[in-house]
User: Which sequence fits this backbone?
């Protein structure tokens, strides 16, 4: 079984594996994966599809990776370059999760409300949605253990309508058979919400899964680029 992790980074290829959280995690975890078997006893192959020195929007590169998989099927993981992978068995967990949902993420929302600007917030005042609508667990920090406890949004392993784009995973066959691609008008913001809404229209299920990861960045909510993408998102969907 092939697992392809797709990452765009501003770092060079050499610096990615030496200095970024995801790169350093993969340098270690690749050795673990190469000694692992899937549920059918087949060898797991972990391939890193890296876009170094990147200035392009994430959807453009993610779509390129999907098209490359037409003749090279795999489980595709779209991930940011600033995550610490803290679980030896994260690959097996993802494989398990994809037997329950078509698209996996770490955190999400069971519902969607009009003009929602994030999976977690219900308005542009960044008001958190009620806990009963949220799902997933994430830790934040640059060193382990982090100074703050992990954020428990709600029980994972739930079907959701919106997912955080920090990490998204799916079988390439699912994406291609359903013609499910990222909208390239959303370069760095709202591509995840848009992707989930496209999945909803195509009856492709989204769900959260329990993976031990730590994210270095808190996001860039409220920036000029974020607001511009939010308006584009509203223009497309109307709500």
Assistant:
């Amino acid at each position: 079984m092939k697992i392809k992790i797709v990452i765009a980074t501003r770092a060079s290829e050499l610096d990615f594996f030496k200095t970024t959280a995801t790169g350093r995690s993969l340098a270690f975890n690749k050795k673990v994966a190469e000694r692992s078997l899937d549920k059918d006893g087949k060898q797991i192959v972990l391939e890193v599809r890296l876009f170094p020195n990147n200035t392009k929007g994430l959807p453009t590169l993610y779509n390129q990776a999907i098209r490359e998989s037409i003749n090279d099927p795999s489980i595709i993981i779209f991930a940011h370059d600033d995550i610490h992978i803290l679980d030896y068995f994260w690959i097996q967990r993802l494989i398990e999760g994809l037997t329950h949902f078509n698209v996996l993420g770490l955190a999400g929302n069971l519902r969607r409300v009009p003009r929602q600007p994030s999976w977690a917030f219900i308005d542009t005042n960044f008001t958190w949605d009620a806990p009963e609508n949220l799902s997933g667990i994430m830790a934040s920090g640059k060193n382990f253990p982090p100074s703050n406890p992990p954020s428990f949004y709600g029980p994972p392993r739930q079907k959701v309508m919106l997912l955080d784009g920090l990490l998204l995973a799916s079988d390439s066959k699912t994406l291609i058979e359903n013609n499910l691609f990222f909208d390239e008008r959303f370069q760095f913001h709202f591509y995840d919400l848009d992707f989930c809404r496209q999945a909803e229209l195509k009856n492709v299920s989204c769900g959260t899964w329990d993976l031990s990861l730590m994210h270095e960045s808190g996001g860039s909510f409220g920036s000029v680029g974020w607001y511009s993408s939010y308006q584009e998102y509203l223009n497309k969907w109307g709500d």
Remarks:
- The chain has one domain: 2-113+135-219.
